[in-house]
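> forwarded from #structure-qc
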């Protein structure tokens, strides 16, 4: 357990032009996407990964790591159970809050359908919203061949995120089949899906952090995305003549986006990065193409232009469209969380044990001297001698006078005792006395 608890993090102290953007990869899919963003050199954001799988955290190149639910999972993952993922996130809300604090915008990246991403991502997103962060979920949905159970779990997780975050960018993995050429490896296809997540995060962060001739900043992004539900994002580039128009057409037709493209969007953020040779007429055509694709005359479009002479004849366009409605989602309750950290337990009053008074043990009694009787041979002319000598005392002798002999019997005393009476039984002696 101590090993998993050691998988903590160091929060980088960066201020990104006054705006702090944090990207949190949750679970295996989200962590892979964040690893890809880090390797691609996405700038202006802080990266974190959170997982219940300690082994996956160890191999991640992201320096800021949080092990979720070590008491519940023991670092072994959520076992494709979203409820375990949810409980793991709830167990470590204090750590999650510490990561999210100070952010202006939070991206929550996850792969839906499994345990940690599906269960923990809504909890993390709810905490970000409680901290007043602009919160955007960037998620992938499972392949249809992964089975109905995994798809149902993904739909429930998507519904929880939709009820929690400001915007959800959702990418169905099944669209990869339409995107990649025949013979593309499975691993390469997933790398491309991760790269689309990267483009989504980088496209938005670049709008916020890169100053432009027609500048768009965090306030513009917030106005487009705050509380706008489902969103789609496309980014593309083109070279040569009519590069801006071609890039705009490619951006709104990205096969990884939801079917229908921009149709039904209520707000669009458009950012164009181009060299100084971009003509006004060409830029006007690109913007009209995007407005027509939305199919909504009242659609709000925020337009930004960033000059970059290093591009040569290349033009890059990023389109973020929000305000889409999506039916068919299950009815769910958003996670109920609080950013008020649990108060530390009150200090336990130290109990001083009462001193135990013991009765003094009685001193051992002094051992009395032991006397031994020693028989000694008495001389014929002396009386009997008894020697009582202690073992440790000086020897001394006690002399006794010889016992007196029997008293003489007077002749007139009839009751006098005679030694001859010993030979006569007692009852005969009594009878004899009675008849005398």
């Amino acid at each position: 357990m101590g090993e998993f608890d050691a998988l903590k993090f160091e929060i980088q102290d960066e201020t990104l032009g006054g705006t702090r953007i944090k990207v949190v990869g949750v679970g295996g899919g989200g962590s892979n996407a964040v690893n890809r963003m880090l390797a691609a050199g996405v700038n202006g954001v802080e990266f974190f990964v959170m997982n219940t799988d300690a082994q996956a955290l160890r191999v991640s190149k992201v320096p800021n790591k949080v092990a979720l639910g070590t008491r519940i999972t023991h670092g072994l993952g959520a076992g494709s159970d979203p409820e375990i993922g949810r409980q793991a996130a709830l167990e470590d809300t204090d750590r999650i809050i510490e990561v999210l604090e100070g952010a202006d915008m939070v991206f929550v990246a996850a792969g839906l359908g499994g345990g940690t991403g599906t269960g923990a991502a809504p909890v993390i997103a709810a905490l970000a919203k409680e901290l007043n962060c602009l919160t955007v979920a960037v998620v992938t949905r499972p392949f249809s061949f992964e089975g109905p159970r995994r798809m149902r779990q993904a739909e429930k997780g998507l519904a929880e995120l939709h009820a929690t975050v400001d915007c959800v960018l959702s990418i169905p993995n099944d669209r990869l089949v339409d995107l990649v050429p025949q013979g593309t490896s499975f691993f390469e296809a997933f790398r491309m899906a991760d790269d689309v997540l990267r483009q989504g995060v980088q496209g938005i962060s670049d709008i916020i952090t890169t100053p432009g001739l027609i500048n768009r900043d965090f306030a513009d992004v917030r106005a487009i995305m705050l509380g706008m539900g489902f969103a789609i994002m496309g980014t593309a580039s083109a070279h040569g003549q009519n590069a801006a128009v071609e890039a705009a057409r490619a951006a709104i037709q990205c096969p990884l986006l939801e079917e229908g493209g921009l149709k039904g969007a209520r707000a669009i953020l458009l950012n164009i990065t181009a060299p100084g040779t971009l003509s006004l007429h060409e830029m006007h055509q690109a913007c009209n193409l995007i407005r027509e694709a939305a199919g909504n005359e009242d659609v709000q479009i925020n337009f930004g232009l960033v000059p970059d002479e290093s591009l040569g004849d290349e033009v890059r366009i990023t389109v973020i469209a929000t305000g889409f409605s999506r039916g068919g989602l299950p009815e769910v309750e958003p996670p109920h969380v609080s950013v008020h950290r649990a108060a530390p337990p009150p200090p336990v009053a130290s109990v001083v044990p009462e001193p135990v008074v013991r009765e003094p043990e009685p001193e051992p009694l002094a051992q009395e001297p032991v006397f031994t009787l020693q028989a000694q041979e008495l001389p014929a002319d002396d009386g009997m001698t008894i020697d009582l000598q202690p073992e440790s005392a000086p020897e001394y002798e006690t002399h006794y006078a010889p016992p007196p002999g029997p008293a003489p019997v007077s002749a007139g005393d009839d009751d006098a005792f005679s030694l001859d009476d010993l030979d006569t039984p007692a009852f005969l002696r009594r009878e004899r006395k009675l008849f005398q």
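QC bot note: The domain at 233-329 is CATH 3.30.1330.20 (60s Ribosomal Protein L30; Chain: A;). The chain has 14 helices and 13 strands.
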